[in-house]
Amino acid sequence: AASDVYKRQPGGKTGSPMDNSDCTSCHNVAGTTVSTTDITSNIPSTGYIPGSTYTITTSSWADGFEITCEENTGNTKTGTFFNTNASATQLVNNGNAITHTAAGISSNTWSFDWEAPSIGTGDITFYGAFIAAGYPGGSNNGDFLTLSTLSISEYTLPSAIREYAKDKELIKVSDFLGREANSKNQPLFYIYDDGTVEKKII
Length: 202
Fold this sequence. Notes:
Number of helices: 2
Number of strands: 13
Oligomer: single chain
């Protein structure tokens, strides 16, 4: 049955550089399409903020899919996937990817959450493989494969702000009365050599 085929989705079939394999290892496909439109997200155009969680959505005419994420420098898996709809999606490949469930076949739209990796990871890419079953369903013959990517940059502060922050030197920490202080849980004033003052409670 088609559901049995989809239940056996093994993972590691996204076509990403690290996976180095896609659905054609199990499916006899009649055609392959490459796109950059099947994976979308609410990550700002300025890039992902390390440690933040975003929603990734895939819309496709396919019956099933698998998506993973890798950093662009060494092509290692990156970020953390969260399954937000257990009836339609499931984690695979040791949690490094997400795919459909048997009940989620032909949903056409799937979504899940992804936590961005730590600072300094750099640019990342989501890789997705989407399979549309041929006839008869479950035979793995005459299927159609779409390979899709979504590339995202890591957010970085504008260079002027980075230089400003880098060049400032802290010269004094004082309380409301101007006395030098380092106590916690009270408002303190951080005075820098460029004349700026920041109020903090630590």
